[in-house]
Please model this.
Amino acid sequence: MERRVRPGIPGIRGTDHIGFTVPDMEEAHTFLTEIIGCEHVYSLGPFPADPKFMAEKLNVHPETVMQQIRFYRCHTGANFEVFHYSAPDQRVIMPKNSDIGGHHIGLYVEDLDAAVGFLRKRGVRVLGEPTASSGPSEGQRWVYFLAPWGLQFELVSFPSGKAYESSAKTKLWDARCPSS
Model:
């Protein structure tokens, strides 16, 4: 039997972590642990400015100071690596999804309505009402919400699967069955 060789980076296994920068580490910690339900695992820093390292390794201003990094485990999905920086050229406006570099973090929930109710009771800004997907994503419902500093999150739920799964040769990774 011939082994299939995948294109791309040799040995890649999947997403290890998602890194993002926050303006207030304590606010982020509270949101990630009490609202999202992540577990704080460990912290690093501060790391003083090292012009060569910052510019060459991280592509940031040479005088950037990494105040702190915290690592969180987010259930059965990717880990979060959360940075708090100070930099002379730091931008403080979050990109919209439509901006270059725009992004969001999608989280699977078993009961979308219960999750939305939880967020609203805690004063989290939920963007509208849940939307039912169509086409290949039929069977999925989703809604966006915002972290206090503006980072966009999305809740998705598809307890009976999505339409594309009935004929797909390859399926997307599924939080309902993390080991598959």
About this structure: The mean pLDDT is 93.
